[in-house]
Amino acid sequence: MEDVNSTIVTEFVLLAFKDFRHFQMLLFVVCLFIYITCIIGNMIIFLLILIDISLHSPMYYFISRFSILEIFFVSIIIPKLLDILLAGRNRISFMACFFQLYCADTTGIVECYLLTVMVFDRHFAITSPLQYLIIMSHWYTRLAVFPWIVGLVAALIPTIITASLKFCGPNIIDHFFCDLAPLQNLACSDPFVSNLVTSIIAIIVVLFPFIIIIGFYIHIIITVLKIKSVEGKFKAFSTCSSHLIVASLFFSTGIIVYVSPNGSNYDKFFALIYKVVTPLLNPFIYVLRNQEVRKAFAMTFSLMKKKHIVNLKC
Fold first, then answer.
1. Helices 192-202 and 129-163, packing angle to 10 deg
2. CA dihedral 280, 281, 282, 287 (to 10 degrees)
3. Is 163 helix (H, G, I), strand (E, B) or coil?
4. Buried b (16+ CB within 10 A) or exposed e, 267-293
5. DSSP label at 204?
6. What is the mean pLDDT of the chain?
7. Which pLDDT tens digit goes with each residue over 249-264?
8. CB atoms closer than 10 angstroms to residue 91
9. Which of 9, 28, 148, 164 has the lowest CB atom count within 10 Å?
10. Residue 177 per-residue DSSP state
11. If you ran DSSP here, which 8-state letter would residue 276 be given?
């Protein structure tokens, strides 16, 4: 006879960084600073590209969409983490937990594929410069939508399968947000199918884009090396250097998070870098590494300063 525990899980408890009780306020301040800086930095980049006509090109269109995506990416995770650190409200309802899981997975998958689309854009611009603007002017908006279609569909499958598992007792998650592996480990029913589907989806949405990006960059490097002038090589490679750094940070930290053994005490710390710290660096990378963005930022700031002085005189 089946031993049935009538307890049905209606909420989960996120432990977050409970072991570091003496550093809760410090972690709160640091995470709050990162969140505010990330939001402001990405909004500045988005508005700058929107306002400055010189940045109205497919490459900067993708960067602006990436900036908005980063805002969504951090806003799904950090607000709840701040609530836990400041007020200790570490409980999250069953539905809210899986909604957070779905949104986090969706934005993560979208970021993987948007970075792939961005490297395709750079590859096309460097290897076929004469055809680039003609073709991309018709395709760049569709290419920006494609990652969202993949993300919304691909994230839904493991979320539904994991949510359909039986949760009849344990509800404590040793993490700061609802993630697939910790939830699957809490299930009373056999999570084999859920684990298998998650692994397959991970290969499709993480490993596959990563291999494509590596392939594109190998071809880009070969093409750039064929350019005779040093100035030409530098100009060609500088157009994709920012993307290369951002993609390297994102995929390296992401792979560490999902390759490390389930239940490791270090999982949530790697996830903190992947989900919180890396998005903070991206606006600075695009501003500091991109000459056109720096120039547009300086001009916009100068115009705003002059307008402010004129208003004061009036």
1. 170
2. 120
3. helix
4. bbebbbebbbebbbbbbebbbebbeeb
5. I
6. 85
7. 888 877 777 655 454 5
8. 14
9. 164
10. S
11. I
Largest pairwise CA distance in the chain: 86
Tokens 């400041």 locate to: 86
Say how far apart CA 41 and CA 173 lie, in whole Å: 32
Phi-psi region of 271 (alpha: psi -120 to 50; beta: other; left: phi over 0): alpha
Q: In what helix (H) or strand (E) does residue 175 lie, and over which residues does it extend? A: none
**Which residue is listed with tokens 């999982």?**
267
The identity of residue 184, as a single letter, is Q
* Gap between the Cα atoms of 17 and 80, Å rounded: 13
Burial environment of residue 208 by CB neighbours within 10 A (0 to 12, 13 to 18, 19 or more): middle
* CA distance linking residue 246 with residue 268, whole number of Å: 21
Block residue for tokens 């806003």: 75
* CA distances from residue 141 to 59, 119, 213, 296 in whole angstroms, order as listed: 11, 15, 20, 23
CA distance 158 to 201: 8
H-type helices in the chain, by residue range? 24-51, 58-87, 94-127, 129-163, 180-186, 192-202, 208-226, 230-259, 267-272, 278-289, 291-313
Q: Which two tokens stand for residue 1?
A: 């006879």
Contact by Cβ (8 Å): 251, 118: no
Structure tokens at 164: 């359909």
- The pLDDT-based confidence of 4 (bands split at 50, 70, 90) is very low
Instruction: Give this prediction's pTM.
Output: 0.88
User: Is the distance from CB of 184 to CB of 201 less than 8 angstroms?
Assistant: no
Whether residue 262 contacts residue 276, with contact meaning beta carbons closer than 8 Å, is answered with no
Query: d(Cα 231, Cα 209) in Å, to the nearest integer?
Result: 31
Residues 24-38 have pLDDT tens digits of 999 999 999 999 999
Among 172, 152, 149, 168, smallest CA distance to 160 is for: 152
User: How many other C-beta atoms lie within 10 A of the C-beta of residue 196?
Assistant: 12
Question: What is the three-class DSSP state of 227?
Answer: coil
